[in-house]
Protein backbone atom coordinates (compact mmCIF):
# COMPACT_ATOMS: atom_id res chain seq x y z
CA UNK A 1 0.00 0.00 0.00
CA UNK A 2 2.74 2.41 0.96
CA UNK A 3 4.63 1.55 -2.20
CA UNK A 4 1.56 2.32 -4.32
CA UNK A 5 0.99 5.62 -2.55
CA UNK A 6 4.62 6.57 -2.99
CA UNK A 7 4.61 5.73 -6.71
CA UNK A 8 1.40 7.67 -7.30
CA UNK A 9 2.82 10.64 -5.47
CA UNK A 10 5.97 10.53 -7.58
CA UNK A 11 3.84 10.43 -10.73
CA UNK A 12 1.96 13.43 -9.44
CA UNK A 13 -1.30 11.51 -9.35
CA UNK A 14 -2.11 12.25 -5.75
CA UNK A 15 -1.33 15.31 -3.74
CA UNK A 16 1.67 14.88 -1.52
CA UNK A 17 0.44 14.63 2.08
CA UNK A 18 2.38 17.69 3.15
CA UNK A 19 0.16 19.90 0.97
CA UNK A 20 -2.63 19.59 3.46
CA UNK A 21 -4.43 22.54 4.98
CA UNK A 22 -2.35 24.48 7.50
CA UNK A 23 0.75 24.28 5.41
CA UNK A 24 3.26 27.13 5.28
CA UNK A 25 4.09 28.32 1.76
CA UNK A 26 7.46 29.83 0.87
CA UNK A 27 7.74 31.59 -2.50
CA UNK A 28 11.19 32.52 -3.73
CA UNK A 29 11.66 35.00 -6.55
CA UNK A 30 14.90 33.93 -8.20
CA UNK A 31 14.34 36.42 -11.02
CA UNK A 32 14.79 39.43 -8.73
CA UNK A 33 18.08 38.90 -6.92
CA UNK A 34 18.83 41.25 -4.04
CA UNK A 35 22.17 42.36 -2.58
CA UNK A 36 25.10 40.02 -2.09
CA UNK A 37 25.45 38.56 1.40
CA UNK A 38 29.03 39.54 2.17
CA UNK A 39 31.00 36.50 3.28
CA UNK A 40 32.26 38.58 6.21
CA UNK A 41 28.81 38.30 7.77
CA UNK A 42 30.16 34.88 8.83
CA UNK A 43 33.19 36.42 10.57
CA UNK A 44 34.37 35.37 14.01
CA UNK A 45 35.90 36.96 17.07
CA UNK A 46 38.91 35.54 18.93
CA UNK A 47 39.84 37.40 22.10
CA UNK A 48 42.57 36.90 24.68
CA UNK A 49 40.04 35.90 27.29
CA UNK A 50 39.63 32.75 29.36
CA UNK A 51 40.88 29.84 27.27
CA UNK A 52 39.77 31.46 24.01
CA UNK A 53 43.30 31.73 22.64
CA UNK A 54 45.64 29.84 24.97
CA UNK A 55 44.72 26.15 25.26
CA UNK A 56 41.66 26.64 23.04
CA UNK A 57 43.65 27.47 19.94
CA UNK A 58 47.28 28.09 20.76
CA UNK A 59 49.25 25.58 22.80
CA UNK A 60 52.80 26.52 21.89
CA UNK A 61 55.48 24.65 20.01
CA UNK A 62 56.44 22.39 22.88
CA UNK A 63 52.93 21.08 23.57
CA UNK A 64 52.09 17.38 23.25
CA UNK A 65 48.89 18.43 21.52
CA UNK A 66 49.62 18.21 17.78
CA UNK A 67 50.17 21.73 16.50
CA UNK A 68 51.57 23.79 13.69
CA UNK A 69 53.83 26.52 14.98
CA UNK A 70 51.82 26.41 18.22
CA UNK A 71 48.30 26.44 16.73
CA UNK A 72 46.28 23.28 17.44
CA UNK A 73 45.91 21.13 14.33
CA UNK A 74 42.50 19.77 15.39
CA UNK A 75 41.02 23.22 16.01
CA UNK A 76 42.50 24.85 12.91
CA UNK A 77 41.40 21.86 10.80
CA UNK A 78 37.83 22.14 12.08
CA UNK A 79 37.74 25.91 11.57
CA UNK A 80 38.92 25.51 7.98
CA UNK A 81 35.74 23.55 7.26
CA UNK A 82 33.78 26.68 8.12
CA UNK A 83 35.60 28.77 5.48
CA UNK A 84 36.03 31.42 8.19
CA UNK A 85 36.21 34.62 6.13
CA UNK A 86 37.38 37.06 8.80
CA UNK A 87 38.79 36.99 12.33
CA UNK A 88 38.60 39.90 14.76
CA UNK A 89 41.51 40.03 17.24
CA UNK A 90 42.82 40.63 19.96
CA UNK A 91 39.66 41.99 21.68
CA UNK A 92 37.14 43.15 22.89
CA UNK A 93 37.87 44.83 26.14
CA UNK A 94 41.29 43.17 25.97
CA UNK A 95 42.16 45.35 22.97
CA UNK A 96 42.00 48.49 25.06
CA UNK A 97 44.73 47.25 27.41
CA UNK A 98 46.85 45.58 24.74
CA UNK A 99 50.26 46.94 23.81
CA UNK A 100 51.37 45.38 20.56
CA UNK A 101 55.10 45.69 21.23
CA UNK A 102 54.72 43.15 24.07
CA UNK A 103 53.74 40.57 21.44
CA UNK A 104 56.53 40.82 18.87
CA UNK A 105 60.11 39.58 18.85
CA UNK A 106 61.42 36.33 20.33
CA UNK A 107 58.67 34.67 22.36
CA UNK A 108 60.93 33.90 25.31
CA UNK A 109 61.79 37.57 25.66
CA UNK A 110 58.21 38.83 25.69
CA UNK A 111 56.91 40.24 28.95
CA UNK A 112 53.91 38.86 30.80
CA UNK A 113 51.26 41.26 32.06
CA UNK A 114 47.94 41.23 33.83
CA UNK A 115 44.85 42.39 32.02
CA UNK A 116 41.60 43.52 33.57
CA UNK A 117 39.59 41.38 31.18
CA UNK A 118 39.16 37.90 32.61
CA UNK A 119 41.86 38.61 35.23
CA UNK A 120 44.40 36.53 33.35
CA UNK A 121 48.09 36.85 33.11
CA UNK A 122 48.75 37.50 29.48
CA UNK A 123 51.89 35.69 28.37
CA UNK A 124 52.04 37.42 24.98
CA UNK A 125 53.03 34.20 23.21
CA UNK A 126 50.40 35.06 20.63
CA UNK A 127 51.14 38.43 19.13
CA UNK A 128 50.93 40.01 15.70
CA UNK A 129 53.03 37.42 13.82
CA UNK A 130 51.28 34.44 15.41
CA UNK A 131 47.86 35.94 14.67
CA UNK A 132 48.70 36.39 11.00
CA UNK A 133 50.03 32.84 10.90
CA UNK A 134 46.58 31.67 12.02
CA UNK A 135 44.91 33.95 9.48
CA UNK A 136 47.07 32.47 6.72
CA UNK A 137 46.28 28.90 7.77
CA UNK A 138 42.56 29.67 7.78
CA UNK A 139 42.68 31.63 4.53
CA UNK A 140 40.77 34.38 6.35
CA UNK A 141 41.02 38.15 6.39
CA UNK A 142 42.28 40.02 9.44
CA UNK A 143 40.27 42.47 11.50
CA UNK A 144 42.71 43.92 14.00
CA UNK A 145 41.34 45.98 16.88
CA UNK A 146 43.52 48.80 18.22
CA UNK A 147 43.90 50.25 21.69
CA UNK A 148 42.32 53.63 22.37
CA UNK A 149 41.63 53.12 26.10
CA UNK A 150 45.20 52.83 27.40
CA UNK A 151 47.17 53.37 24.22
CA UNK A 152 48.21 56.45 22.33
CA UNK A 153 47.93 57.80 18.82
CA UNK A 154 51.65 57.13 18.38
CA UNK A 155 51.39 53.50 19.53
CA UNK A 156 48.48 52.74 17.23
CA UNK A 157 50.08 54.56 14.34
CA UNK A 158 53.26 52.51 14.85
CA UNK A 159 51.33 49.22 14.93
CA UNK A 160 49.53 49.95 11.67
CA UNK A 161 52.84 50.96 10.12
CA UNK A 162 54.56 47.84 11.49
CA UNK A 163 51.90 45.61 9.94
CA UNK A 164 51.38 47.33 6.60
CA UNK A 165 54.49 49.26 5.60
CA UNK A 166 56.02 47.77 2.45
CA UNK A 167 59.59 48.65 3.15
CA UNK A 168 61.98 51.41 3.97
CA UNK A 169 60.60 52.42 7.33
CA UNK A 170 62.29 51.38 10.57
CA UNK A 171 59.12 49.56 11.64
CA UNK A 172 59.03 47.57 8.40
CA UNK A 173 62.65 46.64 9.06
CA UNK A 174 61.75 45.57 12.60
CA UNK A 175 58.98 43.38 11.18
CA UNK A 176 61.45 41.79 8.77
CA UNK A 177 63.92 41.29 11.62
CA UNK A 178 61.10 39.53 13.51
CA UNK A 179 60.62 37.12 10.65
CA UNK A 180 58.15 38.70 8.23
CA UNK A 181 59.67 40.59 5.33
CA UNK A 182 56.41 41.20 3.49
CA UNK A 183 53.68 43.39 4.97
CA UNK A 184 50.72 41.72 6.62
CA UNK A 185 47.35 42.32 5.01
CA UNK A 186 45.01 44.04 7.45
CA UNK A 187 41.54 44.07 5.91
CA UNK A 188 39.87 46.00 8.74
CA UNK A 189 41.27 48.00 11.62
CA UNK A 190 39.05 48.89 14.58
CA UNK A 191 39.82 52.10 16.48
CA UNK A 192 39.00 51.08 20.05
CA UNK A 193 36.28 48.90 21.53
CA UNK A 194 33.17 49.69 23.57
CA UNK A 195 34.30 53.23 24.27
CA UNK A 196 31.00 53.72 26.10
CA UNK A 197 32.13 51.09 28.65
CA UNK A 198 35.35 49.12 29.13
CA UNK A 199 37.09 51.21 26.46
CA UNK A 200 36.96 54.36 28.57
CA UNK A 201 33.40 55.33 29.60
CA UNK A 202 33.31 58.05 26.97
CA UNK A 203 30.58 60.07 25.30
CA UNK A 204 30.11 59.75 21.54
CA UNK A 205 31.17 63.35 20.74
CA UNK A 206 34.40 62.93 22.66
CA UNK A 207 35.15 59.65 20.90
CA UNK A 208 34.31 61.15 17.49
CA UNK A 209 37.10 63.68 18.05
CA UNK A 210 39.48 61.02 19.33
CA UNK A 211 38.69 58.80 16.35
CA UNK A 212 39.53 61.61 13.93
CA UNK A 213 42.81 62.18 15.70
CA UNK A 214 43.78 58.47 15.67
CA UNK A 215 42.60 57.81 12.12
CA UNK A 216 44.51 60.81 10.86
CA UNK A 217 47.82 59.32 11.95
CA UNK A 218 47.32 55.71 10.91
CA UNK A 219 49.92 55.41 8.21
CA UNK A 220 49.59 52.69 5.60
CA UNK A 221 50.34 52.45 1.89
CA UNK A 222 47.32 53.75 -0.02
CA UNK A 223 46.73 50.46 -1.86
CA UNK A 224 46.74 48.37 1.30
CA UNK A 225 45.25 50.79 3.80
CA UNK A 226 42.97 48.85 6.17
CA UNK A 227 39.32 49.78 6.18
CA UNK A 228 38.81 51.72 9.40
CA UNK A 229 35.99 50.84 11.78
CA UNK A 230 34.60 53.21 14.41
CA UNK A 231 33.48 51.60 17.63
CA UNK A 232 29.81 52.34 18.15
CA UNK A 233 27.10 52.02 20.73
CA UNK A 234 25.71 49.33 22.92
CA UNK A 235 22.73 47.43 21.54
CA UNK A 236 19.72 49.62 20.89
CA UNK A 237 21.56 52.84 21.76
CA UNK A 238 21.68 54.67 18.41
CA UNK A 239 23.20 57.88 19.81
CA UNK A 240 26.69 56.71 18.87
CA UNK A 241 25.63 55.74 15.35
CA UNK A 242 24.03 59.16 15.03
CA UNK A 243 27.11 61.15 16.07
CA UNK A 244 29.66 58.94 14.35
CA UNK A 245 27.87 58.70 11.01
CA UNK A 246 27.53 62.49 10.98
CA UNK A 247 31.05 63.34 12.12
CA UNK A 248 33.16 60.63 10.51
CA UNK A 249 31.92 60.69 6.93
CA UNK A 250 34.68 59.60 4.57
CA UNK A 251 36.87 58.42 7.47
CA UNK A 252 35.18 55.14 8.31
CA UNK A 253 33.67 52.22 6.39
CA UNK A 254 31.67 51.01 9.34
CA UNK A 255 30.30 51.66 12.78
CA UNK A 256 30.26 48.70 15.11
CA UNK A 257 27.47 47.66 17.43
CA UNK A 258 27.39 44.88 20.02
CA UNK A 259 24.28 42.93 20.86
CA UNK A 260 24.21 39.82 23.03
CA UNK A 261 21.27 37.47 23.58
CA UNK A 262 20.50 36.58 27.17
CA UNK A 263 17.51 34.44 28.16
CA UNK A 264 16.83 36.36 31.38
CA UNK A 265 15.58 39.87 31.91
CA UNK A 266 18.76 41.23 33.51
CA UNK A 267 22.54 40.82 33.23
CA UNK A 268 22.62 39.73 36.87
CA UNK A 269 20.52 36.63 36.15
CA UNK A 270 21.14 35.80 32.53
CA UNK A 271 20.01 32.17 32.58
CA UNK A 272 21.68 28.80 32.31
CA UNK A 273 23.42 27.30 29.30
CA UNK A 274 21.86 23.86 29.90
CA UNK A 275 18.94 22.38 31.81
CA UNK A 276 16.67 25.32 31.05
CA UNK A 277 12.90 25.07 30.72
CA UNK A 278 10.78 25.98 27.73
CA UNK A 279 10.26 29.55 28.98
CA UNK A 280 13.99 30.18 28.48
CA UNK A 281 13.95 28.50 25.09
CA UNK A 282 11.24 30.97 24.13
CA UNK A 283 12.82 34.06 25.73
CA UNK A 284 16.18 33.29 24.11
CA UNK A 285 14.68 33.02 20.63
CA UNK A 286 12.39 36.02 21.14
CA UNK A 287 15.35 38.10 22.35
CA UNK A 288 17.43 36.96 19.37
CA UNK A 289 14.73 38.18 17.00
CA UNK A 290 15.07 41.67 18.51
CA UNK A 291 18.24 41.95 16.41
CA UNK A 292 16.00 42.79 13.46
CA UNK A 293 14.56 45.91 15.12
CA UNK A 294 17.99 46.83 16.42
CA UNK A 295 19.47 46.75 12.92
CA UNK A 296 16.49 48.69 11.53
CA UNK A 297 16.93 51.40 14.17
CA UNK A 298 20.63 51.85 13.40
CA UNK A 299 20.02 51.67 9.66
CA UNK A 300 17.38 54.42 9.91
CA UNK A 301 20.02 56.67 11.49
CA UNK A 302 22.62 55.71 8.89
CA UNK A 303 20.15 56.37 6.08
CA UNK A 304 19.70 59.90 7.44
CA UNK A 305 23.39 60.82 7.48
CA UNK A 306 24.75 58.44 4.86
CA UNK A 307 22.18 57.98 2.10
CA UNK A 308 25.00 56.89 -0.25
CA UNK A 309 25.38 53.81 1.96
CA UNK A 310 29.14 54.16 2.39
CA UNK A 311 29.04 53.28 6.08
CA UNK A 312 28.18 49.74 7.13
CA UNK A 313 26.72 48.51 10.39
CA UNK A 314 29.27 46.03 11.72
CA UNK A 315 27.73 43.76 14.36
CA UNK A 316 31.14 42.72 15.61
CA UNK A 317 29.98 41.05 18.82
CA UNK A 318 26.81 38.98 18.94
CA UNK A 319 25.64 35.65 20.31
CA UNK A 320 24.39 34.11 23.53
CA UNK A 321 25.74 34.96 26.97
CA UNK A 322 24.72 32.75 29.89
CA UNK A 323 25.51 32.65 33.61
CA UNK A 324 29.05 31.54 34.20
CA UNK A 325 28.37 29.28 37.20
CA UNK A 326 31.11 26.67 37.47
CA UNK A 327 32.68 27.61 34.14
CA UNK A 328 36.04 25.98 33.34
CA UNK A 329 37.47 29.38 32.38
CA UNK A 330 36.22 32.93 31.96
CA UNK A 331 33.04 33.12 29.89
CA UNK A 332 33.17 29.41 29.07
CA UNK A 333 29.66 28.09 28.41
CA UNK A 334 28.12 25.01 26.88
CA UNK A 335 26.42 25.31 23.55
CA UNK A 336 23.21 23.50 22.70
CA UNK A 337 20.63 23.12 19.97
CA UNK A 338 19.15 26.41 21.24
CA UNK A 339 22.39 28.19 20.26
CA UNK A 340 22.17 26.68 16.79
CA UNK A 341 18.76 28.30 16.34
CA UNK A 342 20.07 31.61 17.71
CA UNK A 343 22.82 31.57 15.08
CA UNK A 344 20.47 30.65 12.22
CA UNK A 345 17.83 33.25 13.16
CA UNK A 346 20.58 35.88 13.40
CA UNK A 347 21.92 34.92 9.95
CA UNK A 348 18.45 35.38 8.46
CA UNK A 349 18.27 38.87 9.93
CA UNK A 350 21.75 39.77 8.66
CA UNK A 351 20.84 38.43 5.18
CA UNK A 352 17.72 40.57 5.22
CA UNK A 353 19.90 43.65 5.83
CA UNK A 354 22.72 42.60 3.51
CA UNK A 355 22.94 46.05 1.99
CA UNK A 356 23.88 47.71 5.29
CA UNK A 357 25.43 44.82 7.22
CA UNK A 358 28.60 43.80 5.39
CA UNK A 359 30.30 42.21 8.38
CA UNK A 360 29.57 40.57 11.71
CA UNK A 361 31.79 38.60 14.07
CA UNK A 362 30.19 36.17 16.48
CA UNK A 363 31.48 36.17 20.05
CA UNK A 364 33.49 34.02 20.08
CA UNK A 365 35.46 31.37 18.23
CA UNK A 366 36.65 28.87 20.87
CA UNK A 367 35.78 28.31 24.56
CA UNK A 368 34.26 31.75 25.08
CA UNK A 369 30.51 32.56 24.95
CA UNK A 370 28.73 31.18 21.84
CA UNK A 371 31.70 29.23 20.57
CA UNK A 372 32.22 27.02 17.54
CA UNK A 373 34.53 24.72 19.42
CA UNK A 374 35.14 23.70 23.03
CA UNK A 375 38.38 22.22 24.25
CA UNK A 376 39.58 20.48 27.37
CA UNK A 377 43.33 20.02 27.14
CA UNK A 378 43.82 17.58 24.23
CA UNK A 379 40.07 17.02 23.72
CA UNK A 380 37.92 19.01 21.35
CA UNK A 381 34.19 19.08 20.57
CA UNK A 382 32.26 20.80 17.82
CA UNK A 383 29.20 22.66 19.01
CA UNK A 384 25.74 22.95 17.42
CA UNK A 385 26.74 26.53 16.54
CA UNK A 386 29.72 25.13 14.64
CA UNK A 387 27.39 22.94 12.60
CA UNK A 388 25.09 25.86 11.86
CA UNK A 389 28.01 27.89 10.51
CA UNK A 390 29.03 24.87 8.43
CA UNK A 391 25.54 24.40 6.97
CA UNK A 392 25.35 28.09 6.00
CA UNK A 393 28.70 28.20 4.14
CA UNK A 394 26.90 28.43 0.73
CA UNK A 395 25.40 31.76 1.85
CA UNK A 396 28.85 33.37 1.93
CA UNK A 397 28.98 35.85 -0.97
CA UNK A 398 25.69 34.47 -2.30
CA UNK A 399 23.10 36.77 -3.85
CA UNK A 400 20.09 37.09 -1.58
CA UNK A 401 16.71 36.26 -3.09
CA UNK A 402 13.39 37.79 -2.12
CA UNK A 403 11.20 35.34 -0.29
CA UNK A 404 7.61 35.50 0.96
CA UNK A 405 6.14 33.31 3.69
CA UNK A 406 2.39 32.73 3.49
CA UNK A 407 0.30 31.20 6.26
CA UNK A 408 3.25 31.01 8.63
CA UNK A 409 2.70 29.12 11.85
CA UNK A 410 3.30 30.85 15.13
CA UNK A 411 4.85 29.53 18.28
CA UNK A 412 3.28 30.79 21.51
CA UNK A 413 4.23 30.28 25.12
CA UNK A 414 2.49 32.30 27.80
CA UNK A 415 2.27 35.89 26.62
CA UNK A 416 4.98 35.54 23.98
CA UNK A 417 4.43 34.65 20.34
CA UNK A 418 7.11 34.43 17.66
CA UNK A 419 6.92 33.25 14.03
CA UNK A 420 7.01 29.48 13.71
CA UNK A 421 9.12 29.42 10.57
CA UNK A 422 12.02 31.68 9.66
CA UNK A 423 13.52 31.36 6.18
CA UNK A 424 16.19 32.83 3.95
CA UNK A 425 17.13 32.09 0.34
CA UNK A 426 20.06 32.97 -1.88
CA UNK A 427 21.69 31.98 -5.15
CA UNK A 428 25.15 30.76 -4.19
CA UNK A 429 28.38 31.03 -6.13
CA UNK A 430 27.89 27.44 -7.31
CA UNK A 431 24.76 28.60 -9.18
CA UNK A 432 22.30 26.75 -6.95
CA UNK A 433 19.45 28.25 -4.96
CA UNK A 434 19.82 27.51 -1.25
CA UNK A 435 16.98 27.70 1.22
CA UNK A 436 17.54 27.90 4.97
CA UNK A 437 14.69 27.11 7.35
CA UNK A 438 14.26 27.33 11.10
CA UNK A 439 11.35 25.85 13.01
CA UNK A 440 11.24 27.63 16.37
CA UNK A 441 8.54 25.40 17.85
CA UNK A 442 10.17 22.87 20.21
CA UNK A 443 7.29 20.38 19.90
CA UNK A 444 5.65 20.54 16.48
CA UNK A 445 7.07 19.74 13.07
CA UNK A 446 5.89 21.96 10.24
CA UNK A 447 5.07 21.29 6.61
CA UNK A 448 6.50 23.82 4.19
CA UNK A 449 5.61 24.07 0.50
CA UNK A 450 8.36 25.67 -1.54
CA UNK A 451 8.05 27.27 -4.92
CA UNK A 452 10.47 29.27 -6.99
CA UNK A 453 8.84 31.69 -9.43
CA UNK A 454 9.28 30.62 -13.03
CA UNK A 455 10.97 27.30 -12.15
CA UNK A 456 9.85 23.75 -11.60
CA UNK A 457 11.69 22.68 -8.48
CA UNK A 458 12.43 18.96 -8.69
CA UNK A 459 13.77 18.37 -5.23
CA UNK A 460 15.87 19.55 -2.34
CA UNK A 461 18.88 18.09 -0.59
CA UNK A 462 20.95 19.24 2.33
CA UNK A 463 21.27 18.94 6.07
CA UNK A 464 19.04 19.22 9.11
CA UNK A 465 20.16 19.85 12.67
CA UNK A 466 17.80 18.86 15.45
CA UNK A 467 17.54 16.64 18.50
CA UNK A 468 15.07 15.26 21.02
CA UNK A 469 15.89 17.82 23.70
CA UNK A 470 16.11 21.61 23.62
CA UNK A 471 19.50 21.61 25.29
CA UNK A 472 21.07 18.76 23.31
CA UNK A 473 24.82 19.34 23.29
CA UNK A 474 28.11 17.63 22.69
CA UNK A 475 30.46 16.85 25.56
CA UNK A 476 34.06 15.70 25.76
CA UNK A 477 32.73 12.26 26.77
CA UNK A 478 29.97 12.19 24.13
CA UNK A 479 31.07 14.45 21.29
CA UNK A 480 28.55 13.12 18.72
CA UNK A 481 25.25 13.70 20.53
CA UNK A 482 24.10 16.35 18.10
CA UNK A 483 25.26 16.83 14.54
CA UNK A 484 23.54 17.47 11.19
CA UNK A 485 21.79 14.64 9.35
CA UNK A 486 21.29 14.35 5.62
CA UNK A 487 17.91 15.49 4.36
CA UNK A 488 16.27 15.24 0.96
CA UNK A 489 12.83 15.68 -0.54
CA UNK A 490 11.42 15.13 -4.03
CA UNK A 491 8.77 17.28 -5.64
CA UNK A 492 5.45 15.68 -6.39
CA UNK A 493 3.19 17.05 -9.09
CA UNK A 494 5.62 19.88 -9.63
CA UNK A 495 5.41 20.90 -5.98
CA UNK A 496 8.04 20.55 -3.31
CA UNK A 497 7.01 19.83 0.25
CA UNK A 498 9.46 19.83 3.11
CA UNK A 499 8.70 18.64 6.60
CA UNK A 500 10.84 20.61 9.02
CA UNK A 501 11.14 18.84 12.37
CA UNK A 502 10.41 20.63 15.62
CA UNK A 503 13.28 22.80 16.94
CA UNK A 504 15.37 22.48 13.83
CA UNK A 505 17.70 24.29 11.48
CA UNK A 506 17.73 23.11 7.88
CA UNK A 507 19.69 24.19 4.80
CA UNK A 508 18.90 22.65 1.42
CA UNK A 509 19.96 23.21 -2.16
CA UNK A 510 17.01 23.27 -4.51
CA UNK A 511 17.19 21.16 -7.63
CA UNK A 512 15.79 23.26 -10.49
O1 LIG B 1 33.04 39.16 24.23
C1 LIG B 1 33.29 39.41 25.57
C2 LIG B 1 33.33 40.90 25.90
O2 LIG B 1 32.07 41.45 25.70
C3 LIG B 1 34.24 41.74 25.06
O3 LIG B 1 35.54 41.78 25.54
C4 LIG B 1 33.63 43.10 25.16
O4 LIG B 1 33.86 43.90 24.03
C5 LIG B 1 32.16 42.82 25.39
O5 LIG B 1 31.64 43.56 26.42
Automatic annotation (TrEMBL):
GO terms for molecular function: alpha-L-arabinofuranosidase activity. This is non-reducing end alpha-L-arabinofuranosidase. It comes from Pseudoduganella rivuli. PANTHER family: ALPHA-L-ARABINOFURANOSIDASE C-RELATED, INTRACELLULAR EXO-ALPHA-L-ARABINOFURANOSIDASE 2. Belongs to the glycosyl hydrolase 51 family. It catalyses: Hydrolysis of terminal non-reducing alpha-L-arabinofuranoside residues in alpha-L-arabinosides. Keywords: Carbohydrate metabolism, Glycosidase, Hydrolase, Signal. GO terms for biological process: L-arabinose metabolic process; polysaccharide catabolic process. Residues 316-504 form the Alpha-L-arabinofuranosidase C-terminal domain. Its EC number is 3.2.1.55. Residues 1-20 form the signal peptide.
